[in-house]
């Protein structure tokens, strides 16, 4: 398994949500520099770099005398495209010190710009490296040079750990030798911090037997591939490894659906973590873009801007363990310190005759006897049997074993097993419970795409937990809404689809922009829902005019017309249960 990476994302992402069919959200978990998380816990090493991070459109480093725009196929500038709906204050670009593709992406993507294409050309020297064309090979030569020399001898491409650390070492050594004065050295690599400015946690890593075992293995492979002459001292390599391991990020594809590599972004890793982030980062090639989730976020203020390093669909205890084990800090962000977080591990009252109360097991709950720990339901005022509580706890603790069991089963048996397990725990765990959501997370990828009703039901069952775990404008929420809207359309329920597609569109438009493929996809779903409603109204003799334009227009004027149509129809559908769902979210 890949170790934790800073969520892509985010957010990530990103890590970073696996509730999508065909892995709509990338596992996006990123490796970020340690640090105290949350407001007023900014690391000392990030002080004084506010206003130093590059803003979209800012002139690159003075050392670079050439046009430094990142080019795909040697032609397209990779900067984020701004439109009338986008505000440059809501996004910032960052460039890597070094980056590398995952092993399974090496044969399908350019080793320089990371574009996926069927027409890759091999390096004429090593016959292993793949590039869009000669221009990409030229631009990528500063990274591929050392690899190319080694591949002529070894003939086998090493794994990403060796390749990424090798590129970091090669670049660090070039800086030591003064080769960074070359005009193209900082082309698409500009950053305000040096690699020695970021956290390393050498003492902690060196005291961790598992981490040292991992480094020794990587270092042995590094020497075997590159040779000792290409290396710096072992101590320097270890320090670079620590800085890379703590601070690197996952790189996603431009669609925000798949993790394709890892990169060390010296300025992006200056931002602290929060389990309730107000920003995410996305990738376009090797360029990472930090994006705000609300209008009030100042991305240049490191003390108030935070994104998530981990998967947010976890309890506070689980999240703190992940952060402590990888980044060596205990999170005390707003979400982690919220008493409402205990809802993620709550249980259902076994005695309530209807609308069963959700009972929290952790924290100072008034319904729990401080001495006996017996829980009394505040709704039906009956005591909860201890054996019932133990059964619920056992079910939550068994999730990891359930995952292992499913990995050893056939697809059909895994579906049956997970379905039966979900049905059983649904009688004791509420839908907001994160462990209930994780069972659905395991089940969704196994369901055939043609079973729209079943997939719709699963997404609806997990919606409450998703909405609780992520900020409103997070793309994970928007993508989840999009899936529900899509399945509603397939089930011929356009009115319900319209509501979810509208919410998804607003989130993705703000976060990604109107030109992103995912936003345009939701726009098309929204158009389909409007057309289906229009046809339905005509078929029953309804003379109400639904002004839906053909196609999937993206201009502001057409969207304004579409919005009025959506509002008019939504007013008729005010009773839609999903939109009126009351969810407790600690503001």
From TrEMBL:
<feature type="compositionally biased region" description="Low complexity">
    <location>
        <begin position="547"/>
        <end position="559"/>
    </location>
</feature>
<keyword id="KW-0479">Metal-binding</keyword>
<dbReference type="GO" id="GO:0005634">
    <property type="term" value="C:nucleus"/>
</dbReference>
<feature type="region of interest" description="Disordered">
    <location>
        <begin position="541"/>
        <end position="562"/>
    </location>
</feature>
<dbReference type="InterPro" id="IPR046341">
    <property type="entry name" value="SET_dom_sf"/>
</dbReference>
<feature type="domain" description="MYND-type">
    <location>
        <begin position="110"/>
        <end position="148"/>
    </location>
</feature>
<dbReference type="Pfam" id="PF01753">
    <property type="entry name" value="zf-MYND"/>
</dbReference>
<protein>
    <submittedName>
        <fullName>MYND-type domain-containing protein</fullName>
    </submittedName>
</protein>
<dbReference type="GO" id="GO:0008270">
    <property type="term" value="F:zinc ion binding"/>
</dbReference>
<dbReference type="InterPro" id="IPR011990">
    <property type="entry name" value="TPR-like_helical_dom_sf"/>
</dbReference>
<dbReference type="InterPro" id="IPR050869">
    <property type="entry name" value="H3K4_H4K5_MeTrfase"/>
</dbReference>
<keyword id="KW-0863">Zinc-finger</keyword>
<keyword id="KW-0862">Zinc</keyword>
<dbReference type="InterPro" id="IPR002893">
    <property type="entry name" value="Znf_MYND"/>
</dbReference>
